[in-house]
């Protein structure tokens, strides 16, 4: 069923199965979701801030259709995440417009990639204008996977913004480097919220660090919860369509979100959502606990995604003989290939130094990078160089 027909079905007040109508016998049975029969919402508390947020929130990075955001707000989802850089700056504008009439019922977050305090404050002013609001509920320093990515100027910018009432909470986001940055950022005694890559492919290795941070009063928001973001509606270059469809019909996205929420120290997860079906799927992750059958499903899926999914564990840091930032480049490729966000991948790739973007893995006689998790690094980076180079 396409989005339009799905919407009119909901408009008529009828319950609709939230997952594909074609499913295997072993598929977890989904709850029907409709506006007349509201879905189950479960809340987490963002650390000592006390903000109550739905445990499944809304990642707006890949969303283009404002009606999906509006429907999420109607259903009670109350945390919406954007960033200055998403969709070349257009994402905040769309999100601000969609959420204008809901502003007093929802929390809005955004992020800056600025490296100086002045630039960060300029970004904040633009974010506020585009999002049509006088404050952000969380303002993140974006993508800081090394402690050195945060400096005193940026911290001061967050302090000043708080004093001026332009932000409620100061956050920091990071894709990798967890073992260094979680305790390091915690020790700074500055941040209210961490936005952390966290999913079943990463396993439980960082759980003690998450627990420690959460117990210290820091709110924990998870991103990359779907381990690659592969959905039936997104073209994938790396998994054959028939296999992809099977994996999704079996409820893998819901299972992946449940895996994240199974950690009680994670307050909420912000999966990217592009359409009504994905919205319905994600909401289901709050309806029942993670089951043994879903654990089996994710174990099978992990085998499938191994050759291409980088869990950003950091084990290969510094191994490339030509100095390539392997995990970052694999992430940019994932944005293009698995999220359907080519320009996001390209913009990130272009932000790398020329000495990095000019390297071609095809020129290496052998690859010095060994991934203990099975990622075919040289092949995937060759793909990145073809896509963006
Ligand atoms: S390529 Fe492998 S070793 Fe390197 S960060 Fe990714 S998962 Fe870890
Ligand atoms: S093949 Fe690519 S990733 Fe491997 S060592 Fe050479 S440049 Fe680095």
Structure description:
With 389 residues, the protein is α/β, with parallel strands linked by helices. The protein has two domains: 3-304, Alpha-Beta Barrel (TIM Barrel); 326-388, no CATH class. Helix content is 39%, strand content 11%. The protein contains 15 helices and ten strands. The protein has helices at residues 3-11, 66-75, 90-99, 117-130, 152-163, 178-187, 207-215, 241-249, 252-261, 276-284, 292-305, 326-337, 342-350, 354-357, 377-388, and strands at 43-45, 52-54, 58-59, 79-81, 107-112, 136-141, 167-174, 193-197, 219-223, 268-269. An eight-stranded parallel beta sheet has the order 3-4-5-6-7-8-9-10, covered by helices on one side. α4 (117-130) packs across α5 (152-163) and α6 packs parallel to α7 (207-215). The radius of gyration is 20 Å and the shape is globular. The two termini are 38 Å apart. Residues 1-36 and 232-237 have low confidence and may be disordered. Residues 320-322, 324, 359, 361, 364, 367-369, 377-378, 381 line the site of one iron/sulfur cluster.
Distinct small molecules bound, one entry per kind: iron/sulfur cluster
What does the average pLDDT come to? 86
The main pleated sheet reads as: 8 strands, parallel
State the name of the first-level CATH class of the largest domain.
Alpha Beta
Strand order, main sheet: write it out: 3-4-5-6-7-8-9-10
Total DSSP E strands: 10
Shape: globular
- Poorly predicted runs: 1-36, 232-237
Kindly report the name of the CATH homologous superfamily of the largest domain.
NADP-dependent oxidoreductase domain
């Amino acid at each position: 069923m396409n989005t339009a027909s799905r919407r009119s079905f909901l408009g008529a007040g009828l319950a609709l199965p939230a997952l594909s109508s074609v499913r295997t016998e072993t598929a977890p049975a989904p709850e029907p979701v409709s506006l007349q029969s509201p879905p189950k919402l479960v809340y987490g508390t963002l650390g000592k801030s006390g903000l109550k947020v739905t445990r499944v929130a809304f990642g707006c990075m890949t969303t283009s259709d404002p009606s999906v955001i509006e429907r999420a707000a109607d259903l009670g989802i109350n945390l919406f995440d954007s960033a200055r850089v998403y969709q070349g700056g257009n994402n905040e504008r769309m999100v601000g417009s969609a959420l204008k009439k809901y502003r007093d019922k929802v929390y809005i977050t955004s992020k800056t990639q600025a490296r100086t305090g002045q630039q960060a404050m300029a970004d904040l002013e633009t974010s506020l204008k585009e999002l049509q609001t006088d404050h952000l509920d969380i303002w993140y320093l974006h993508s800081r996977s090394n402690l050195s990515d945060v400096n005193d100027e940026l911290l001061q910018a967050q302090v000043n913004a708080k004093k001026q009432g332009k932000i409620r909470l100061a956050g920091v986001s990071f894709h990798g480097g967890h073992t260094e940055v979680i305790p390091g950022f915690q020790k700074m005694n500055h941040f209210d919220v961490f936005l952390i890559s966290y999913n079943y492919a990463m396993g439980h290795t960082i759980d003690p660090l998450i627990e420690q941070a959460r117990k210290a009063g820091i709110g924990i928001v998870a991103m990359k919860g779907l381990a690659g973001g592969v959905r039936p509606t997104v073209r994938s270059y790396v998994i054959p369509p028939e296999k992809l469809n099977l994996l999704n019909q079996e409820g893998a996205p819901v299972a992946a979100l449940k895996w994240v929420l199974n950690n009680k120290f994670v307050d909420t997860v912000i999966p990217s959502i592009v359409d009504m079906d994905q919205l319905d799927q994600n909401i289901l992750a709050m309806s029942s606990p993670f089951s043994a059958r879903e654990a089996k499903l994710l174990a099978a899926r992990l085998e499938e995604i191994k050759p291409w999914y980088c869990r950003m564990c950091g084990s290969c840091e510094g191994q490339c003989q030509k100095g390539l930032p392997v995990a970052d480049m694999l992430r940019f490729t994932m944005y293009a290939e698995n999220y359907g966000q080519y320009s996001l991948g390209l913009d990130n790739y272009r932000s790398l130094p020329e000495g990095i973007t000019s390297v071609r893995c095809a020129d290496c006689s052998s690859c010095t990078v060994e991934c203990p998790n099975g990622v075919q690094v040289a092949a995937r980076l060759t793909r990145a160089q073809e896509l963006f180079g």
